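pinned: reference chain
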Amino acid sequence: TKQWCKLDLPGPGDFSALLKSTTGNDNGARCNGGACGDITSDRRWHPAGVAKVFYTAHHAVDPAETRKYIKALKEKQLSGQLPPPILFKGTFYTSGEELKEAHPEITCII
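pinned: its structure tokens
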């Protein structure tokens, strides 16, 4: 099986899932705003789709835009309202272990 997945987000705009969600920072919180979808599945290796993992962002090439997102993320974190960093099927998870427990069918290791 293929266990490696490219988990970085396509761009800074994907962080809208974290910034627009109003569900708090608990494991199992639901995404309710922004880019809540998964990274696209493929029939052979990842038929269930791939989780979004908010550790990095690809294509963060505009310093002003990046600064705006970092500031907003910091403010949400300081207020205790930043959701956990893993998003799959509309639900946030605090760790890869919790994600795998909820979705044993996934093939990616986080």
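why pinned: DSSP finds three helices and three strands in the chain. The mean pLDDT is 85.
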